[in-house]
Fold this protein.
Amino acid sequence: MTRNEYDVIIIGGGIIGAATGYYLTKREQRVLLLEKQYLGSGSTGRCIGGIRAQFSTETTIKVAMESVELFRGMEDEFGFSVDWFPSGYLFLAYTEEKRQAFLKILGLQQSLGLDVRFVEPVDIRRRFNYININGVLGGTYCPTDGQADPFFVLKGYMLGMVKGGSNVKTHAEVVGIDHHRSDVFEVAIADGDKFYASKVLNAAGPCSKSIGEMVGIDLLAEPERHESLITEGIEFKAIPMIVDYRPDGCYFVQRTTGQIIGCYTPEVQIPGTDTGSTFEFLTEMPRRIIRLIPALESVAILRQWAGSYTITPDGNPIVDKTDIQGYYVSTAMCGHGFMLGPALGKLMANFMIDDSWPYDMSEFAYKRNYQRDTEVLG
Amino acid sequence: MKPDTIICRCEDITYQDVLDAIQMGMRTVTEVKKAIRAGMGPCQGRTCGRLIAQIISQETGKPISEVWDSSHRPPLMTTPMGVLAGGHCDEE
């Protein structure tokens, strides 16, 4: 191989690209990862670092459980901490309908071996005495869910790739993919360099639609804006990720740094890749946090920012090969890229080499019925 | 500067930590921040941002204007949640 020839070219330096590149490198593939800005500059670096296996469909639960295992092992694997901490996720139901929905999903989760339980308001009161349980009809709690620092995870994958002989190129925006020869892709970046590989992975998150268009593929993946904020650090109480399911709810967790970090899902979706911040969020999010934990009223906010969720109509990612031989996609994580990323990276790396999945992945297929027929958690 | 000179006081980041991040390939204040948390504390880089820009500039030979890319985000100063939530939190 010459200097610019690789086994696989990955487009996108977020968790998906980095994890897939890492596992491909472990299987002795020579990988080139191209990132427009720097690692984590897109959605991964803007996420709040939550990791959970409490999902509502079989494939996602399996992938997420595998991811949790991988996060747990990262400190040993990388030789440094990624700030993994099993703070747990607590989902709160405020309507009877939601309570019933939780109970139904709980059965599926438990049947797949997830350590998750239903908690009555009195249990919540006992265990997390700082939570205001007014109106709460119960919830589900999974103690093995947790959190990690996205940048430390990316660093681990990047160092592993480089150590294994792969190449990570940042500030390298892909501007064109030429596929006139059926067995090779020519990938051009903005400064004029060209790279060659027989396999390409589109892991470009919010930009994956335009990277797909470069080879004539139309991905049903549209970005929308989500805002977040973080506070100063306070005494570490291991506050779990509390997910308030009211229409004006929110979710937040205490990081291992003692800081409170959280988001809410806007009632009206804001399409596009704009990552500006709004006064509405800055005033509304604290109200929702204080309503759940009144004692946080005096805690100061350090920063508010925004990032993109890349959404499909049915709320499931697209992780598959495509009609074009050698062109793969792993994108549209619908806000779950960081938590699903390690397992999806491993699964996709193996799929790109072996052309088979260890279990049914049709929920994430490129060609599927994208109409939503089941309720997707969060 | 000595290797153990503190550059970011909020997060206890030393001169050596910054050099290590640059060695790892970080080229801008934002990249260094995200690699080692320099500038993520209560001052949000108001104290260390310029220092880090100078170090990157010295190490890479790039002008400060090219490496000092930090974005500024609300709130302008640390503000208690109760103040921001304003009159909205009295419903319960």
Q: What stands out?
A: The helical segments of chain B are 15-23, 29-36, 49-60, 64-67, 81-84.
